[in-house]
């Protein structure tokens, strides 16, 4: 199996960091754009897509700034992170995504993120 590589993509989001943050770390917020259903218990998030469940541990949390999850069944060095970046001069807000995928699946993975973030933006009404 080929090794997973880290990749990063950034999206401009017209939202306040505080509002955006609730969509990144709260089960209810994540259910509105990221997965069909999300439940949380003891820092373990269960994400459900088409009746398939995947568990991730919340490993980093910085209020109104960043969330990092580690898939429980993934390689030790792999995680996915959503970081809110706000430009100090313009106050523009961006969402930076860091994820891991094999070389062959990076383009597909980026497309999935593009679709999810488009859905997030429409959910936010941004």
TrEMBL record:
UniProt-listed InterPro entries: START-like_dom_sf (IPR023393), START_2 (IPR045736)
Domain START-like, first and last residues per copy: 1-126
A UniProt-annotated Pfam family: START_2
Name of the featured protein: START-like domain-containing protein
